[in-house]
Design a protein that fits this description.
Helix content: 25-40%
Pfam families: PK, PK_C
Largest sheet: 8 strands, parallel, barrel
Enzyme class: transferase
Radius of gyration: 24 Å
Domain Pyruvate kinase barrel: 8-330
CATH class of the largest domain: Alpha Beta
Structural class: alpha/beta
CATH architecture of the largest domain: Alpha-Beta Barrel
Number of domains: 3
Low-confidence stretches: 102-107
GO molecular function: ATP binding; kinase activity; magnesium ion binding; potassium ion binding; pyruvate kinase activity
Number of strands: 21
Number of helices: 17
CATH superfamily of the largest domain: Phosphoenolpyruvate-binding domains
Shape: elongated
Pathway: Carbohydrate degradation; glycolysis; pyruvate from D-glyceraldehyde 3-phosphate: step 5/5
Distance between the termini: 19 Å
Length: 474
């Protein structure tokens, strides 16, 4: 395969519209590098079949495809309502009652049940409550027993099982439910490459997931989904221990005023870039392409601005999972990325640590400013060297050579990196040169006479052992 013409990675959520091998193959050929499996939907049988299909297409095309397992996290929902739903009228008083409490009481007039038992203990007068992704808004006016009375601020027809958000409350909910733990076990058994954690509020949530993964004897990279105000407040502590970040703009825009989300997005991307942490920008990027073959100009600008901000990846949700034009949506993202990257001037941030590895990665930028290279080749056992090379945001493609198949798959999420799988670890500098020549020339990724820049560590088995940089002519 040729070196990709765009450096920003594309995440596509796999669903009914994209689950067939024929459609998924076209999406990969159009630019998909990461397949997201949303564990809010689908059976284990469905997910197992999808994972097998993804790996088969990956092998067929000889392209690494990263599998991202997205855990659902806790969800608070409205209980059963009539088939017609209930009409919320602005100014009306409505009562919210926990489901378990409601089952033991007589039916209440103007009442809605929710599956959260602590609402009356945690809410105060004036607490805002959002329903159905923020479409409807209530405000608490009175507390009595286990129930709360609310004034309807924004009304409409509410139907069963819609989501409930309490943007100002730090709820007594774990970041992982029993379902998430079962889903995690399934994902690890099927060798997913990344796991994204929902409902993250503090670093301890990420640490808990790390401990669970260690208990299974696995090593999987973790993405923290930033979708709660508490996660924004504790972002630096979360960033210090996580492997990747997702700006989950949909939930974030419900939990916080929408006008704050663009600046938060830019801040998160910048801090991730400064620390060499891969970051995904997600939700509603090409939303209109669920139903239309072309995006709006505003959507195209949204994708372009995320790329200009320095995001590693842009994500499709409903567009690729249930939309009518999944391949076209991927093609459009690829076209936007390729066009924007031509003229983009990406920020180059100082090294975040004072050690040999970071010093060598900083040198890449200085050397590439002087000499035009066909590509940068990163020898890496853990993926760290390639990630640091990506942090420099050079427009020169990065070829990551690794003998570890898990690293090979994971690195396809990282900006500008094309992973290749080595047959063996290298133990000498001479073997490095031999492997580089064989891989690049054998795959038509470069030609004889091309100048390349090689970075890595000898011996290769030492994680974080980057200790050389070489200019080489094939």
């Amino acid at each position: 395969m040729a070196i990709p013409q765009h450096l920003t990675k594309i995440v596509a959520t796999i669903g009914p519209a994209s689950r067939s091998p024929e459609v998924f193959r076209k999406m990969v050929e159009a630019g998909v590098t990461v397949a997201r499996l949303n564990f809010s939907h689908g059976s284990y049988a469905d997910h197992a079949k999808t994972i097998a299909m993804i790996r088969a297409v990956s092998d067929e095309l000889d392209i690494p495809i990263t599998i991202l397992q997205d855990l659902q996290g806790p969800k608070i929902r409205v209980g059963e309502l009539s088939d017609q739903g209930i009409q919320l009228v602005e100014g009306q008083t409505i009562t919210l009652l926990p489901i378990d409490r409601a089952q033991a009481t007589a039916t209440i007039a103007n009442g809605i049940t929710i599956d959260y038992p602590y609402i009356a203990e945690e809410a105060t007068i004036g607490t805002p409550i959002l329903l159905a992704d923020g479409i409807f808004e209530l405000r608490v006016t009175a507390l009595h027993g286990n129930a709360v009375d609310c004034e309807v601020i924004k009304g409409g027809c509410l139907t069963s099982h819609k989501g409930v958000n309490f943007p100002t409350l730090n709820l007594r909910l774990p970041s992982m439910t029993d379902k998430d733990r079962q889903d995690l076990a399934f994902g690890l058994e099927h060798n997913v490459d990344w796991v994204s954690l929902s409902f993250v509020r503090e670093a301890a949530d990420v640490q808990m997931l790390k401990s669970l993964i260690n208990d299974y004897g696995k090593s999987v990279s973790i993405i923290a989904k930033i979708e709660k105000p508490q996660a924004i407040a504790n972002f630096e502590e979360i960033l210090a221990i996580v492997d990747g970040v997702m700006v989950a703009r949909g939930d974030l825009g419900v939990e916080m005023p929408p006008e704050k989300v663009p600046i938060i997005q830019k801040h998160i991307i910048r801090r991730c870039n400064e620390n060499g942490i891969p970051v995904i920008t997600a939700t509603q990027m090409l939303e209109s392409m669920i139903q239309n073959p072309r995006p709006t100009r505003a959507e195209a600008s949204d994708v372009a601005n995320a790329i200009l901000d320095g995001t590693d990846a842009v994500m499709l949700s409903g567009e690729s999972a249930v939309g009518a034009y999944p391949v076209q949506a991927v093609t459009m993202m690829t076209r936007i990325a390729a066009e924007v990257e031509k003229d983009a001037k990406f920020m180059n941030y100082p090294a975040s640590r004072t050690d040999e590895v970071h010093a060598i990665s900083e040198a890449l930028h200085v050397i590439a400013d002087v000499i035009d290279f066909r590509c940068i080749v990163a020898f890496t056992a853990s993926g760290y060297t390639a990630i640091l090379a990506s942090k420099e945001r050079l427009k020169t493609p990065i070829i990551a050579l690794s003998p570890n198949i898990h690293v090979y798959h994971r690195l396809n999420l990282v900006w500008g990196v094309k992973p290749l799988l080595l047959d063996q670890e290298v133990s000498s500098f001479e073997m490095v040169i031999e492997q580089v020549e064989a891989c690049l020339l054998g795959r038509n990724l470069a030609s004889r006479g091309d100048r390349i820049l090689i970075v890595g560590g000898i011996p290769m088995s030492i994680q974080g052992g980057t200790n050389f940089i070489k200019i080489h002519v094939l």
